[in-house]
Every structure is written in structure tokens, then in C-alpha cells.
Design a protein that fits this description.
Elements: H1 6-42, E1 43-45, E2 52-54, E3 61-63, E4 70-72
Antiparallel strand pairs: 1-2, 3-4
């Protein structure tokens, strides 16, 4: 039979509990980061009037509801 002292058992339980909490916190932070990134992708800013609006369509080119300008989703990589 395996003999273990009460002190060693208590320390083992505490270490295990702390490790589990650490893993849960890392997992939750990862999920929160994904949700924030997804929400940021839906917020658009018009390049002409500066109007902020939400678009959940996922299309590459989105029309501004304020001025009607076609805006490119994401970073504009064109020169000039």
C-alpha cells in the first residue's frame, strides 16, 4: 500500500487545484479574445464621413448607411 502523509496529501490537492484554475483561466481568456475579435470584425468605419456602423453580412465591400459610400472591409492594402 502507498503511504502518504497528510501534509503531502494537502499540498498535492492544493497544487492540483491551482493547476486546474490556471488552465480554466487560460481557456476563458482565449474564448474572450475570440469573441472580441469577432465583434471587432463586424464594426465598420466609413472612409468618407467617419460613421461607425455594424455589419454582420461578411461581404468584402459594404455600403455606408449614412452616405452610401462603398467601404472595403478590413485593412486597405492599396498604395496611395
Amino acid at each position: 500500500m502507498l503511504e502518504i502523509s497528510f501534509q503531502d496529501l494537502a499540498i498535492s490537492v492544493l497544487v492540483f487545484a491551482m493547476l486546474m484554475l490556471g488552465f480554466l483561466l487560460v481557456g476563458r481568456n482565449s474564448t474572450d479574445r475570440q469573441l472580441r475579435r469577432r465583434a471587432r470584425r463586424e464594426i465598420m468605419s466609413c472612409s468618407v464621413c467617419g460613421h461607425l456602423y455594424q455589419d454582420k453580412s461578411g461581404q468584402k465591400i459594404v455600403e455606408c448607411p449614412q452616405c452610401g459610400r462603398a467601404n472595403l472591409r478590413g485593412r486597405d492594402k492599396s498604395l496611395g
